[in-house]
Structures are given as structure tokens and as C-alpha cells.
């Protein structure tokens, strides 16, 4: 066990700068949502919203993002300018949250919430497909490092925002939140995008005919379609927790904003540890084994979290929850990219993101309905059920360690 840990540390140290810079950009695309989830209880209190209305604010974001997912993937595969698209994604991330901060009615907050995920969902097809092409032999590990970005952002943001809320209003915190976006955007503009254009493969896009030929292949792949369901169910669990865990910590347990932020940070920090470990193991041992273990453990931990209300056990359960729930995310992405044509990486990521948006859009509303009628802990039991169903779907998938042949044959270079 110690030798495996040492090998993992050596692998992380040997990761090249391009991968870390892409992960840094991914950090900011999740920084803003992580901030908003902790601010949501204060917004709910100020505007006098019900649990159902709070869930609707998150749902409308997910529904609106469905309109972004498919066009984003098509742009990545047909145009191929992934560095430019990642730059635009960063620009589109922070501004809508700023507009939420200047809104004083449920209508305007809901309207601007429809735009807050545009940058996030534009980022994923370009970034993940780039990493899939550049690191084909370490795909699970590369996507796992990319997935550390959200864990970093979502672990630091709750602590920082929790402390800021002791001195600032939730509106002022949203204004201050633009600062890390400006800083990270400058770093990426300075060090990443020119480097990406010269090193990333697949800069030339597909023709329209080649694109639709590949999409027909994907539509006939049952394993990929089942993985779409798994990704959506896992995202459903995550979205429900993101929405109602901060409300439970502040309203039901009576924690201060700083302490609630610390609890949420524990979840993300544990996920940051588990993510590269799961990605690396899945490269060597297979995706299905790692995914099954992670989803089953998540379901068990959620039941423990909802049933036992002892504080010391609660924070321990949160640590295990973050470890397993976030660790399986890159394994799912790597598995589907194993099975599909590399030229359609952007569309596969968009298709997966779309399924996640569709199912995760249902989760806050359903959890809000359950919480209003049977208590907020009942919503956590529902979320445990969703991840358990996802595990049953995984068991029905046949593991195939293969890649689809390229849609466009590359010319053989003379020696």
C-alpha cells in the first residue's frame, strides 16, 4: 500500500505543466458555483424563498445549460480551436454571478441563474477532449488531474467565502468573487493558450459529413449510452448535495457560515485526494471495478450521513462521501472516451454534460419537494437511492478496453 502511494506521488510530481494549467482553468469554472451554494441560504433568507424555490434556482441553471452543451461540442469538433473556446469559457463564468448579486427579486435572480453555467459547460468539451488526445495511455489519470481543479476550487471557496460572510453581505461576496477569475484568466492567457495551440493535437476540425458519420457510430454503442445514464445519475446525486447540504448545515444544524464552509471544504478536499488515485487505478485495473466500488460506497455513506446525526460522525461521513463521489467522475469520462472515436471527443463530452444537466436539473426540485413535505434528511435518502441505481446500471455494462478506429485516417509518414 505504501509503495502504491509513493508511486502515485511520483506520478503527480512528474505531471507536465500543460496539464496543471488546464486544471487551473477548470478550478475557476467551479469556483463560482461553489461560492453560490454557500451564499444560497442567505439569499433564501433575504428573499423569503421556500426550499422548492431554492431548488428551482439551481434547476433553471441546469436546464438552460442543455442549450449550451450540444452546440459547444459541435464547435469543438468542427472548428477545433480548443484554446480559443477555453478562453471564452473563462470569460463567461463569473459575470452572471455578479449580475445575481445586483438583483433584488426572485424573477431577476432566476433569470441570471439561467446563464451562470455557460462558461462551465463550454469549458469541458474543449478541455477534456484535448487531454484525451494528448494522454491516450494515461487518459484516466489526465482527466483525474483535470478533475482536481473543481475539488481545489470547491474546497478553498467555501472556507474563504464562509470567513468573508462574517464581514460582508452575500451580495458583496459575489462582487469580490470576480477577482480570482481575473487573476486566473490572466495566468492562462499568459502561459497556456499559445502553448496549447502548438502542442495539442487535432487542431483541424472534421467535415460535416465525417462528423455525422461518427455520431451514428456513437448512437449504436450501448455501453456509451448506459454510461450516459450513469453519469447523469451521479451528477443528480452531486447536484442535490450541493444545493441542500449548505442549507442543512446552516439552518438545521445551526452552524456559522465559517464552520459550514469548513464542512463543505472537507468534502472537496477528500475528493481531491481520491480523484487522481481512482483515475490512475482505473488505467491499470479497469474502469468498471473502480466505478462500482466508488458508487456503492457513496450510497452507503449517504445513508449513514442521514441516519446518524452525531457531529463527529457527520464530518467523517462527509469526508468519505467526497472521497468516493468525486473519485468516480474522471473514471466515467475516461471510460466513455476509451470507447468512442477520438475526433468526437468534444461531442461525447457535450453529450455526457447534457445528460448530467438533464438529470441534475431534476434533482434540486425533487429534493426541495421532498424536504418541504418530509424533512430535509429525507432528501438525502433519495440521493442515496439515485447513486445506488447508477451502480446497478454499471453492473449491466460490459467492460471493453478498446478505442474506436479514427473517422479520418491519418496519412502514413515516410521514414
Describe how the helices and strands are arranged:
Layout (H helix, E strand, L loop, with lengths): L1 H12 L3 H31 L3 H29 L2 H20 L4 H8 L4 H17 L4 H26 L5 H7 L1 H14 L1 H7 L8 H12 L2 H31 L4 H29 L1 H21 L3 H29 L5 H30 L1 H20 L20
Structural description of this entry:
By secondary structure, this protein is mainly α. The protein has a single domain, classed as Growth Hormone, Chain: A, CATH 1.20.1250.20. Helices cover 83% and strands 0% of the residues. It has 17 helices and no strands. Helix 4 (82-101) runs antiparallel to helix 6 (118-134). The model is unreliable at 198-203 and 405-415 (pLDDT under 50).
Short description:
This protein is mostly helical and 415 residues long. It is built from 17 helices and no strands.
* Poorly predicted parts: 198-203, 405-415
Question: Alpha-carbon distance between the termini?
Answer: 45 Å
CATH topology: Growth Hormone, Chain: A
Radius of gyration (CA) equals 20 Å
Give the averaged pLDDT, no decimals: 75
CATH homologous superfamily classification? MFS general substrate transporter like domains
Oligomeric state: single chain
* Total domains: 1
Shape-level CATH architecture? Up-down Bundle
Biggest sheet overview = none
User: What order do the SSEs take from the amino end to the carboxyl end, as H and E?
Assistant: HHHHHHHHHHHHHHHHH
Total number of strands:
0
Number of helices: 17
CATH class category name? Mainly Alpha
Helix proportion of residues, in percent? over 70%
Relative strand content: under 5%
**Overall 3D shape:** globular
